[in-house]
Amino acid sequence: MFIRFVTSHIDEDSGRRLEKSGRLTEPDRTTLDTLYQWFSKRLMKPARLAVSARPNRKAQAISWYRDTAREHIAQMREMQRVLERYGIAVEMIKSDRIGYVLYEDEFQVASYPFADTNA
User: How far is 7 from 90, CA to CA, in rounded Å?
Assistant: First the structure.
């Protein structure tokens, strides 16, 4: 089973944009900063997220947590709580069929979705 967290915004940086809006309380800003640092230290960034190696190709893979990455998922739930306090809905999606795997490590998998992947 694989898990991902998504928002209705097509914005990879929703939390950062929220920080710049001036709406965040200081405790929530500190929480988000701490979470970003935590993930930065504990998740590898895949070198390639596109099916094609062409340099102008858009990134097409999507990232999933392995269901065994319990600490990472708990940290995402904390981020979810902060974002939802500011009206950014976050949904947790689970799937066994995530697509063609382009990258994987102990905690995460990046895959190009099958046509019927719920992502």
Answer: 5
